[in-house]
Design a protein that fits this description.
The chain has a 15-stranded mixed beta sheet that branches. Helices cover about 20% and strands about 30% of the residues. The protein has helices spanning about 65-75, 95-100, 125-135, 165-180, 195-200, 220-235, and strands spanning about 10, 20-25, 35-45, 50-55, 85-90, 140-145, 150-155, 155-160, 185, 205-210, 250-255, 260-265, 270-275, 280, 285-290, 300-305, 310-315, 320, 325-330. About 45% of the residues are buried.
C-alpha cells in the first residue's frame, strides 16, 4: 500500500528544464494565519541527462557557512550549463535560520534529530518527512553543510559516511578527495540514528556532510573551503565541465573512536579550558577545571582527557550543565 504523500507542496516542477526558483510550502495554521504556510526558498537547475545532486544548508539555523555558500552558488546557476540536476535549499530549517537558532522557534525541534519525520507532525517533523520521502528518492548525491553553531567551534572538515559496497565506496572516496577539505573525519555519534545523514544512508545514497566553523558566525576560511569544495565535487560528479576552483592540498583522514573521544561535563559549573582547537592531547592530560559558581572558594574539579587525539571541536559557552559536550577529539586514520 502506497504511503500518503507529504503535506508540503513545492511550487517548482523538478523535471522542468532550465533554472527555476520557488518555495516549499509548509502548512502552518496558527492564531494570526488560519490558512497560512511557511515558504522555504528552493531552486532547481535541470540540464542534460546526468546525476541529481541535492544541496542543503541551514539544517541548524545558527550555522551560516553552508547557507551563504549556497546563496552565492544560486547567483551563478542561471548561467551555468550542467549535466543532471541540482536541487538547492540554502536554509532547510528556515524558521530557525531566520531566528539564528539551532532549533525551531515554532516547535522547539532540532531538525537534525527527528528523521524520518512525520507527515502529520509539527512544522519541523513535516520538513524532515518531506525531505526523507520526496527529496532523498530523487537524489544520487546528497550534500548537507553544517558548522558548530553558537555552542561549538569546529575545525573545517568533511564528515564521511563510507558505503559498504566496494564500487560505491571507491566512488565516494573520489568525491571526498575532490571536495578536498583539510580534514575528513569518520564520525561516531554514539548510536544516534535520527539524523539527516542516517536517513540518507537508509536510502542508499552517497552522502557528503561537513562542519566548517562555529560560534554562530561565518568563518571566512570555512566559507571558502565550502565554495571551492562544492565546485570540485560537482565537477568530479560529472555535473559541471570545469571545477572553477583551485586544486586542494588533499585531505587528511581522521576518526572519532567512541565515547572516549568525547569530553563531557560531569556536573554544573564554569569551565576553564586548558587546550585550544587543533591541539594534540594525550590520555590523562588535564583538560580544564570546573568551578562551582555557588561556592567559588571550593577547589575546582580537574577534568582529564580519556584518550589521545587532536581537539577538533570545542564548546563556545563557559557555563556547563551535566552532559554538555566540552570537546571532541579525533585520531589519524587510513581509508578503511
Amino acid at each position: 500500500m502506497a504511503q500518503p504523500r507529504s503535506l508540503i507542496q513545492c511550487t517548482i516542477d523538478f523535471d522542468a528544464q532550465g533554472f527555476r526558483t520557488g518555495t516549499l510550502r509548509v502548512p502552518y495554521s496558527h492564531d494570526r494565519s488560519a490558512y497560512g504556510h511557511i515558504p522555504i526558498p528552493i531552486a532547481v537547475l535541470n540540464g542534460s541527462p546526468g546525476p541529481t545532486v541535492l544541496l542543503t544548508g541551514g539544517n541548524h539555523g545558527d550555522e551560516f557557512e553552508g547557507p551563504l555558500a549556497l546563496m552565492k552558488l544560486l547567483q551563478d546557476l542561471p548561467s551555468l550549463s550542467i549535466r543532471g540536476r541540482l536541487i538547492v535549499i540554502p536554509a532547510l530549517n528556515f524558521p530557525a535560520f531566520l531566528k539564528g537558532a539551532r532549533t525551531s522557534p515554532i516547535d522547539g525541534c532540532n531538525l537534525n534529530r527527528i528523521f524520518p519525520g512525520k507527515r502529520n507532525g509539527s512544522v519541523s517533523e513535516m520538513i524532515a518527512h518531506y525531505v526523507d520521502s520526496e527529496l532523498f528518492p530523487l537524489a544520487d548525491i546528497v550534500v548537507d553543510l553544517h558548522a558548530g553553531g553558537a555552542s561549538f567551534n569546529h575545525m573545517p572538515m568533511v564528515l564521511a559516511a563510507l558505503p559498504e559496497d566496494p564500487r560505491r565506496h571507491d566512488e565516494y572516496i573520489r568525491l571526498i578527495d575532490a571536495f578536498g577539505a583539510p580534514h575528513t573525519m569518520l564520525m561516531d555519534l554514539l548510536g544516534e540514528d535520527r539524523t539527516y545523514g542516517a536517513a540518507v544512508e537508509r536510502h542508499g545514497k552517497l552522502f557528503v556532510c561537513g562542519e566548517f566553523g562555529g560560534f554562530g558566525t561565518c568563518n571566512v576560511d570555512g566559507l571558502r573551503i565550502v565554495e571551492h569544495g562544492l565546485a570540485r565535487l560537482l565537477h568530479a560528479a560529472g555535473v559541471t565541465e570545469e571545477a572553477s576552483a583551485p586544486d586542494s592540498g588533499g585531505t587528511r583522514l581522521i576518526r572519532v573512536d567512541g565515547a572516549r573521544h568525547y569530553l563531557f561535563a560531569p556536573e554544573h559549573g564554569v569551565f576553564e579550558p586548558m587546550f585550544k582547537l587543533g591541539d594534540k592531547v594525550e590520555a590523562g592530560q588535564p583538560a580544564g577545571q570546573l568551578f562551582d559558581p555557588y561556592a567559588p572558594w571550593q577547589t575546582p574539579r580537574l577534568l582529564r582527557f580519556e584518550s589521545d587525539g587532536m581537539v577538533v571541536c570545542v564548546r563556545s559557552f563557559t557555563g556547563v550543565e551535566p552532559g554538555d559536550c566540552i570537546a571532541l577529539l579525533a585520531r589519524d586514520a587510513g581509508w578503511a
